[in-house]
Every structure is written in structure tokens, then in C-alpha cells.
Amino acid sequence: MPSESKKRVYNPKVETRLSRADVNRLDEAARLAGQTRSDFIRQGLLWYLDNLENLKEGERETRTAQAIRYASDQIVKAILSATDRICGMLARQGAEVGTLYELTWRACGTPEAKEQFTAAVNTAKQRQRNRLDTDEKAVAERTKKVVTS
Q: Which of 3, 40, 89, 118 is the most exposed place for a label (fewest CB within 10 A)?
């Protein structure tokens, strides 16, 4: 029986250059890992090649997260701006309603007229509260449907 000759495996050599500081860091990391410099480099390079696609995907996810964060920030800014405008409009409207109320109150010449005016104001307030309660319930129901669907 003829002896089988062993096939020689070709393992190409890869070289690179590092700064002295990086070589020192490399040697320290290899020492802490209990490996030779070559084994440590080989293991690190193979890990990097095995995980390269995941690293690229992570970069894409990071860019997507940044875009989402930017868009969310812009939406929040728009909402805050709209809220400021609405609050300003409500404040001006409140001042105008207060002025009309005061003018009407002063125009009531008799105690009976003032009493009727106060009753009308209280009725209007109650109607407004009822409408707000109805509106709040409708909004709560619509929100509940959106959240649970």
C-alpha cells in the first residue's frame, strides 16, 4: 500500500503596519486575553469579517433611528408652536369676552336686570360644560379605538 502524501495547505500571510502606541495596546490586549499577538489579531479579524454585515445593518438602523428622532423632534416643535398659538388666541378671546361681560353688566340698570344677566351667564356656562363633557367623551372613545386597534 503506497503511503499517502500529505497535502500542503496554503495559508497566505497578511501584513500591516501599526503605530507604536497601537502595537502596545495590541500587545496588552493579547496578554490579557492569554493569546499571542498573531492569534489575537487573527481572532479579531475573523470576528470582524463574520460580523461585518451586522455592523453595516447596525449603521443603517442607527441612521434610521436618527431620522425618526429628527422627525419626532420636528413634530413636537410643530405641536408646541401650535399650542402656543392656540393659548395666545384663547387668552385674547378670554379678554374680549371679559370686556363684553363687563360692558353688559354695567348696562344693566336695575338689580332685576343684573339678576337676569347673572342667570343667563350661569345657564350659558352650564351648557358649555355639558358640550365639553360630550366632546371629551367622544374624543376618549375615538382615542380608545385607535389605541386598541
A: 3
